[in-house]
Amino acid sequence: MSSAALPPLPSARAKDIKSRIQQSVTSHTDLASHQDAQKSSSDISKASVNDTPEPTHDSTHSNNQLSQNNEDVTRQQMRVRTKQLQCIHRKEQQVFGTLPPLDSNLPCEAIHEYIATTSAFLNSYVADVNAALEGTNHKLSVLEKQMAMLEVRLASIPGLTNEENSGKLGELKEIDEESTSQ
């Protein structure tokens, strides 16, 4: 695998993005100043036209004129957007046009490495969770045995048990004997 096929480092990408942003900001300010100049020249021409008194027109003519103005504004916005997109395309071609295409094995290797590291992480996570569950299961079984022993001891006190619990007393003694033998 050659180093020429590798993508640029994050620091190089960050510098490239900063320079692209600065270039786009300067181009936008140039475009804005150009538009301001056009607006001021059109304002001057409108002012000279507005010096002459306008005859009154009916509302349909003014509506047509408004819709035509809206269409002109929309067309102008489309032209500006098209110029912006063309500028972005030129800049991308300048930056990425000189880079050779990536080797076809490189994306496959990157995806394979990602899958391998992800599966290794998941396997270790599952092993940790199983160990924690086994520990919790052991603690619960110890707690159950201790509770059984406590119940047997409480059942052995003569005044605390009634006739219904006397049958369970034998069962609890068996559990107590099993837990002490282990």
Question: What topology emerges from the helices and strands here?
Answer:
Blueprint: H1 10-50, H2 59-96, H3 105-155, H4 166-181
Helix pairs in contact: 1-2, 3-4
Describe this structure in words.
The chain is mainly α and 182 residues long. It is 80% helix and 0% strand. The protein is built from four helices and no strands. Helix 1 packs antiparallel against helix 2. The longest helix has 51 residues, at 105-155.
What is the count of helical runs? 4
- What is the general shape? elongated
- What gap, in angstroms, lies between the N and C termini? 61 Å
Order of helices and strands: HHHH
Write down the Rg: 41 Å
Derived from helix and strand composition plus strand pairing, the structural class reads: mainly alpha
Q: What is the helix fraction of residues, given as a range?
A: over 70%
Question: Number of DSSP strands?
Answer: 0
Share of β-strand residues? under 5%
Query: For the report, how would you describe the main beta sheet?
Result: none
pLDDT < 50 stretches: none
Global mean pLDDT:
77
Key attributes of the depicted protein:
182 residues; mainly alpha
Q: What is the gist of this entry?
A:
It contains 4 helices and no strands. The chain is an all-alpha fold and 182 residues long.
